[in-house]
């Protein structure tokens, strides 16, 4: 699909992440994609990976892009991934980057009936609180991009959404992944 069945070159400049409908066995995913090579092709610099083709980061112009392998809700982020995000953001700030964009599957703040906590009455899971604490430390965090909810939405993330947020950022939820769109 990335090549549009006509070798349009998209495969060589795309940085995929797994979602909850993707393969659970990581070995085929890691073998199939080449994010390090793609970063070179697009002119990115400072490519690093916590796990090959799963959780990775790279600089492009004045921003760092961090992809985190969370194939489901954001609460399954691991402490190792959170540490990778923190060290990547610290290194990017030391290099003078002015923006950070993170992307992973399930949003920090779900907005649809697709999740079990759409009524906003559930507490923030501790693993998400730990990620938010890292994001609070880094002024360059501009936005996160997610999928999972099969809709298109934008949320200004601040303490009115997640009480633990002290440094606001934007959250974008993009696309239906071929399914019918949910509402929010």
Spans of at least 5 consecutive residues whose pLDDT stays below 50 are none
Radius of gyration: 16 Å
Instruction: Please identify the structural class as seen in this structure.
Output: alpha/beta
Shape descriptor: globular
User: How many strands?
Assistant: 7
Beta-strand content estimate: 15-25%
Largest sheet composition: 7 strands, mixed
What is the helix fraction of residues, given as a range?
Answer: 10-25%
Order of H and E elements: HHEEEHEHEEE
Q: How many helices?
A: 4
Strand order of the largest sheet: 1-2-3-4-5-7-6
Intertermini distance: 28 Å
Quote the average pLDDT: 90
Could you give the topology of this structure?
Elements: H1 26-32, H2 35-42, E1 45-51, E2 55-60, E3 63-67, H3 79-94, E4 99-103, H4 126-137, E5 141-146, E6 153-157, E7 169-173
Parallel strand pairs: 3-4, 4-5, 5-7
Antiparallel strand pairs: 1-2, 2-3, 6-7
Helix pairs in contact: 3-4
